[in-house]
Write a structure and sequence with these properties.
binds iron/sulfur cluster; binds thiamine diphosphate; globular; alpha/beta; binds magnesium ion; single chain
């Protein structure tokens, strides 16, 4: 695996099992629905995290399906926390590990600290704790599983639900198109915190996902990865289409794959010619009610956002004075 780097990975369009670590950290036996893209994402991300990590996980599908006492699918030390405080708990773990290390009480390397949550737990309910942890500069990686609604409790809309989507709390009808707002852009919010590493990722592009997680973990300071996770139950999509839908999200420009390293944008998967969003939307029952005119509106919005992203990727990057070190500050005696 060591010899297989990011550059080589780009040659592989599809998943090649033998090129990824065999060891499983998210084991079979969990109760995720058939075809769950979120469970697939968790599996790949945990392989990328590898050993020596502690995970704090918000409530949500991935916690509910995987940790019914007395069983668990998680091979890492794993803490189930409330919606509101996932990043705050991760901050506490990271700080405690630093203190133990400073006092010489930590044997071996300092474990990586990872926080995970769904889109509801990240872009809505846990946002304040996440913002605080990013702003304070904790050395941790936050991963958002974005299935675009509060799925675990029965498909309620979140601020990450896309325009026009049907959920149980944004039902389409005579007076409503479904979700009436455009999807909140959590990636922009993370970038606005000035943190060293931010990326989008998808389990449909395994190597891209794998190397982004590695990069995030190896970057000192806060890192944020936003993972689009297809949910056949909530998206009303065929269970054997999850990987394909993840690819269509990228191929239509709905969910571009890129990273922002110290403010510098870079597309990591280039799409020579974008497909029409219709190809993506028409496979999902949650968009079934949309008329052609609605789809054209979404198409125009998607293209405009994509153009903006391309501009950011191509813009000359100004020389900033080197950032203050993200190494931990000296703690006061007794801290
Ligand atoms: C403060 C609080 N409000 C509501 C709930 C109920 N609840 C548990 S999981 C969940 C949905 C989670 O949605 P999301 O974060 O998007 O994760 P998903 O289930 O979609 O993966 C809700 C509303 C809760 N546990 N705590
Ligand atoms: S509801 Fe969606 S995200 Fe939750 S386990 Fe089922 S497919 Fe996965
Ligand atoms: Mg969700």
């Amino acid at each position: 695996m060591e010899k297989f780097g990011y550059a080589q990975s780009q040659k592989y369009d599809t998943y090649a099992a033998r090129l990824l670590p065999r060891e499983e950290f998210f084991t079979p036996g969990h109760r995720a629905c058939q075809g769950c893209g979120e469970a697939l994402a968790v599996r790949w991300v945990c392989k990328a995290i590898g050993k020596d990590a502690i995970i704090a996980h918000a409530t949500g599908c991935m916690e509910i399906v995987s940790s019914g006492l007395p069983q668990t699918s998680w091979m890492h030390p794993w803490i189930h926390v409330a919606f509101e405080n996932t990043a705050a708990v991760a901050s506490g773990i990271e700080t405690a590990l630093k203190v133990l290390e400073r006092k010489g009480k930590l044997r071996g390397p300092r474990p990586k600290v990872v926080a995970m949550g769904g889109d509801g737990g990240t872009s809505d309910i846990g946002l304040q704790a996440l913002s605080g942890a990013m702003e304070r500069g904790h050395d941790f990686t936050y991963i958002c599983w974005d299935n675009e609604a509060y799925m675990n409790t029965g498909i309620q809309r979140s601020s990450s639900t896309p325009y026009g989507a049907m959920t149980t709390t944004s039902p389409p009808g005579k007076l409503s198109i479904g979700q009436r707002t455009w999807k909140k852009n959590m990636v922009h919010i993370a970038v606005a915190h000035g943190i060293p590493y931010v990326a989008t990722a998808s389990p449909s592009y395994v190597f891209d996902l794998y190397f982004k997680v590695r990069k995030a973990l190896e970057t000192p300071g806060p890192a944020y990865i936003h993972v689009l996770s297809v949910c056949p139950t909530g998206w009303r999509s065929p269970t054997d289409m999850s990987v394909r839908l993840g690819r269509l999200a990228v191929e239509t420009g709905v969910f571009p794959l890129y990273e922002v390293v110290h403010g510098r944008y870079r597309l990591t998967v280039e799409v020579p010619k974008l497909r029409h969003v219709r190809d993506y939307l028409r496979l999902q029952g949650r968009f079934r009610h949309l008329r052609d005119a609605d789809i054209e509106l979404i198409q125009r919005h998607t293209r405009a956002e994509y153009e903006l992203l391309l501009e950011k990727c191509q813009a000359p990057f100004p020389e900033f004075p080197s950032m203050a070190s993200s190494e931990e500050p000296e703690l006061e005696a007794g801290g």
